[in-house]
Amino acid sequence: MPASALILAGGSGTRFWPASRAGRPKQLLALAGARSLLQETVDRLAPLVATERIWVSTSAALGPAVREQLPQLADDRFVLEPVGRNTAPAIAGALGRMPAAAREGALAVLPSDHRIADPEAFRDTLAAAFEVVRARDGIVALGVVPRFAETGFGYLELGAEEPGPPGLRRVARFREKPDLETAQRYLASGRTLWNAGMFVFRGTTLLSRLERHAPELAAGAAAWAVAPGRAELYAALPSISIDHALVERLDDLLTLPLDCGWDDLGSWSALFDVLPPDGDANRSHGAAFAVDARDNLLFADDGTIAVLGVEGLVVVRSGGAVLVVPRERAQEVRLVVDRLRAAGRTDLV
Amino acid sequence: MPASALILAGGSGTRFWPASRAGRPKQLLALAGARSLLQETVDRLAPLVATERIWVSTSAALGPAVREQLPQLADDRFVLEPVGRNTAPAIAGALGRMPAAAREGALAVLPSDHRIADPEAFRDTLAAAFEVVRARDGIVALGVVPRFAETGFGYLELGAEEPGPPGLRRVARFREKPDLETAQRYLASGRTLWNAGMFVFRGTTLLSRLERHAPELAAGAAAWAVAPGRAELYAALPSISIDHALVERLDDLLTLPLDCGWDDLGSWSALFDVLPPDGDANRSHGAAFAVDARDNLLFADDGTIAVLGVEGLVVVRSGGAVLVVPRERAQEVRLVVDRLRAAGRTDLV
User: Fold this and answer.
1) Which of A88, B148, B209, B241 could form a disulfide with A245 if both were Cys (CB 3.0 to 4.6 A apart)?
2) Identity of the residue in B287, B302, B322 whose CB atom sits nearest the CB atom of A306
3) Domain match, A326 and A215 both
4) pLDDT digits (tens, 9 = 90+) for A130-160
5) Is B306–A291 a contact, with Cβ atoms under 8 angstroms apart?
6) ipTM
7) Domain of A343?
């Protein structure tokens, strides 16, 4: 049975405002190239996963924009959540909507808003994970080899080695957002991986585990999957991530280390780190002119940005709005979005 | 004979880029209010100078935009220079185009790209200057009472008092752009005024003085004035300011002190100084949101500007371009314009 992929594309967020908006979230943006993060997520599956074996879960509201970006996928490959209920209902619901044959085979659940610099390394690890779940009934997290002591991610503490491809291990413990000291200890130990939200399993494995650990959620998602027009069934599901609903509770979670230049692009500042620098260490997207200016991120979705004599700034021009923020405060863009909402400028958020 | 005014609106410049462009220079911009600097220049003449006694000199290229801003003026009140030749040809040519009756009466020549906070004080001084030139054959410079040791302006050193309205004096010496030490001495002396390019005279007085000090220019401008279709006559005139061609050479120049909140708005930084501050000392025009940000000038001709955590910046959004520059370097905007020109982005300059 060839492997399938379920891409999660229903997320929303404010960290890339003003380029990202309610109707145009991060995964739909071409932040670090000509293709959107969602398109790159689909593109990098080839040739490992055939196009006709790719499913996309997104919200009803985002459906048209998501489909427009993926014309190569048939209409029935898009599973639309009537309302947002986080990843556990999205995954369970989409599995229920898939043909039984796909559900019974190896399947990868993949976020659509991350960047991967080395798609070939990614596919190699993904192929190994598919082999694992074909050989045994298990759930494999693809764990990113940590590069710094990040406190915003979840960590997988490595347990015993398992028979299978090199690096396959049990996860001894799942630790969400550690404090800085713990994160530093984790990094130094060499015995943790970042949880990147990428999981591989047979669909039937995941559903049976979910029935055990979250029976109401599993039953509700299954009921909606056979009557997808009944939005109230989906709306009644709890809003919960697959991490909290299931993965953290497993005592036999497996992991494979993933070393493929993964970046979650969590902010404008993270984008600065992955774009190529000019001679003055400025990074730009679109038409930008920097005169006697250093270390700036200049992101022009439309029009032209010119800066003179400034350093370490993020300057974004997109869809009627301009944002200027120091790089080290780019994580706080939400404050601007909150202010705009409070001022009734919902046209901009 | 009622007094007339000749407004000089042919200038160009780069200091307010990107709001100002080749086809939309500073005088056409509403920088510090709802009306453009040119419109305010006309507005503030009422009721002292009747609308039908106002003439406007501008370039052929700017003619349509200038007329559009001043629908209250009859078409024959606009004098179009075929090519730019600075203020001496513009004034001499426009005087030649005026009806003889207007040329023989009191007349004020006024720049159109400055700001005046107190129009009533301006009109009081202007009215006094009109009285002076009605009573005697002379040229009166309206001299702005200096507020700081500016090195970019011309200074009028005060000479002997003259009979007439309070403050009327001879100008002992005309000094262009002094060094800082001289400017500081001037400021401390209380015996200098800034040359603001505002002169009052009878047109016939000015033309006869010009015939004496710059006979070829006077003859050439007169020849063009009777054959304005012959652009080559105008093009043959030297490009020279009225200051250099005439005013500096006069040994009987008069001056009246002008204390009316005059500002030449020489840069974005100067505009910051005249706009009203918000609670965090930010100044804005158009839709702007400042979060945890201080002392910024946020100028949105279109769209919305949002800043977070920045201080002392100029941020401008206008006509497809964004500019970000520290306030203290706003004088250097020309460097950006030069860079855009070099890159072939003439659409933006």
Assistant:
1) A88
2) B322
3) no
4) 999 999 999 999 999 999 999 999 999 999 9
5) no
6) 0.91
7) 268-348
